[in-house]
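Fresh eyes needed here. Kindly weigh in on this sequence plus structure tokens:
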Amino acid sequence: MTTFHDDLNSKVGNIMIDIKDFPRYHRLKLTENDPMNVHKIKKLHNEKYELFHKTVLVPAAEKSEGKILCSKAALMWIVYNEAKEVEMTRKCLHLFPKINMDLSKWWIKEFDRPIEDLYSYGMNVISTGYQMVIDYYKDWMFTQKWERIYSKGSSFWEWYELADNQKGLMEGQESPFDLDPVMTKAKILMSVKN
């Protein structure tokens, strides 16, 4: 079975990276020109990265003299971030509007129609229908990741192993429907000014 980690390896090669170099790709540069709120968010992101570096990357690279496969480090960073988001999303689920699956499915079918027919709906209707489809997809993806990865483990390392064995899901290749035609038509329709 090909894992997500194996697939990343095929894309970036079996490149070993010194964990001291990994921050170059994930830390955000703070500048004096940053608006105050942007600066705050970049600082929070960098603090999160530092914690990841200390608690995940350093132990993972301990036996290999501070080096790690680039693809492995990338997957670790993805899982680290998702695990935090999943936890917060679960706490806030009661604050989200309920997604109407039937309406979302109707819009998915509707986006199969010729683009000329969709144009007659107008920008407001198309963007609302498109958002319903995207919300349905995000809800489906969250549910799948929760059920297949994050609910089955209780630690980062368990989640990492589970995620590594869910290649299609982690790459976004699994979906309850083909999102590409919907996205393509919606973006074309929304990019044309009336």
